[in-house]
Structure formats: structure tokens, C-alpha cells
Amino acid sequence: MVSALIADLFESHRAHLLSVAYRLTGSVGDAEDAVQESWLRLAGTHQSEIDDLRVWLTTTVSRICLDHLRTAATRRETYVGQWLPEPIVTGVAPSSRPDSLESVVRGEEYRMAVMVALETLTPPQRVALVLHDGAAVPFEEIADVLGVSADDASQLAVQAREAVAGVPTAVSDVEHEAAVRRLLAALATDEVDAVATALHPDAVLIGDANGTTSTVVKIVGGAERIARFMLELVRKHGIGYSEQAATRYEFATVNGQLGLVMNLDSETEEQDWHPARVVGFTVRDGLIWGTYDHANPAKLTGVRLS
What sign results for the dihedral spanned by CA atoms 188, 301, 13, 38? Predict the structure, then answer.
């Protein structure tokens, strides 16, 4: 049986464990499940076997997430279109989940561009990078999780760093917000050229709907193409800020910086419970570089509008 002291200590590490699990899985639900499983494993472990509870819990959660990553690829073979990590939305009514990640998604390592880049890594690379660079776990411990040597674990982290090196550095919140508002103002003009000038020349647009609604799979390096597609979505769904808009957007914080939360119908009360879309952005050189259209309802049920 776990003592009250150990239970309290576990709770003190919960936010850290959730943040690690979220970066490893890209899913709020899977992160919460991994943390809960680590608690169950702790209950079945004698305290004398644990030298450092934080390290033990971190590596235990990582093992659970590694198992998830190794099976996720197979499950995603039937997924329709592009896969995006589940967004963490703040700035709206608090989530009903008692262990929300809202309080821990403050660092640059949780930005959507970084989370998307993590999806390109192999499971061992992702574990090595997140544990060493994000959680300061020694390579000897990481090696034990992965079943490799410490040198191999170190090399995996090097490979992972190289793979995500092209991710833009997060700009200040002020610069980020200015770029987002500039894009929205351009979209309101209904002019392709105006929208294209608000986008970075190397802009990327990624949509995740799993076949449930219209979005794009992925457009890379085409400001004009992205501008045309954005305007098509705005026209088709009647997206706007006014109460009369068929799809009304509200500002929210998506993985730490300003984004949008959209309702299906501003006059349908049922839609106030969860959004139809969540859109996150990455800014580079004062322009929108990355746009992430989250439109799969299964990934948005945890978001609550105010």
C-alpha cells in the first residue's frame, strides 16, 4: 500500500509527468492515462526499490509512452489525412479535468511547431530527446528505458536534435499576436494578395480532420496557395468574429500562444460545449509561418468555450 507521504509526493510530480507524457505522445488523454498507470505501478513497487522518486516516475511514464508510440503507427494507418498533436487550449473556461495540462504548457518546447516536429522522430529518438533535453534525465537512465547503451541513447538524442533543428524559434507574445491579427484582417478583405502578404514565403498549412470535415492535408512553401485555401474555408464555413457569423471564432491560447477557437454555429447552444475547430499558429520574421487547423472532433472534446 502506498503511504500518504508517497501519495503526496506523487501529486507534487503530477504536472511534470503530464508534461513529459504529453510531449512523448502528443495526446492529452494518452498523457493522463500514462500518468495514472505510473501511479498504479508505484502502488505495486516497494519503496526500498526507488532511489529517486522523480526519476523513477519519469522513466516509468516514459516506458509506458514508448509502448504507446510503438503501437501508434499501426493505429494511424487507418487515419484519414494528416495527424496533428492534440492542442492544449487556454484562455477559455477551465477544463473539467482535474489534471489539466493548462498550467504546464508555458515553455517553447510545447509550441505546436515543436510538437509537430516531434511526430517525425522515431519512438527511441523522441524518448531520448524529451527525457534528456526536456527532463534532464541522464543518458544512463534513458538507455535503460530504451534497452540500448548510454552512447546509443546519446546518439539518438543527437539525431533527434538535428531533425527538429529547422523549427522556428518562438517569437514574443506581442510579435506573435500582431502577426495573427494581421492575418485575420487580411482574411476579412477577401483578397488573395492581402492574405498572401501576411504569410511567410515558406509558410506551412496542416489540417487534421480524420475525414470528418473539409480541411487541407498539407501545403508547404506556398503563400498564395495557402491564402486561396484559407479564403475558401472562410467563405465555405462563414468564418468571422461577429455574432452573426455562421462559424464564429474567439481568441484563445493554443499551446502557449494566441490562436483561435471556432464554433459551428454562434446561435446553437450545444456548440458552446466544445469547438468545431482550433487553429494554432507559428510566427517567423513577423509573418505567419505555420497554421495548424485542428478539426477532428475527437481531439477537441476536452476544450471548453467560455
Answer: negative
pTM: 0.88
Q: List Cβ neighbours of 137 (8 Å cut-off, separation of 6 or more).
A: 55, 58, 59, 62, 131
- Mean pLDDT over residues 221-229, rounded? 90
Given a contact cutoff of 8 angstroms between Cβ atoms, the answer to whether 296 and 210 are in contact is yes
pLDDT of residue 233: 87
- Domains of the chain, CATH where assigned: 4-80+113-163 (1.20.140.160), 173-299 (3.10.450.50)
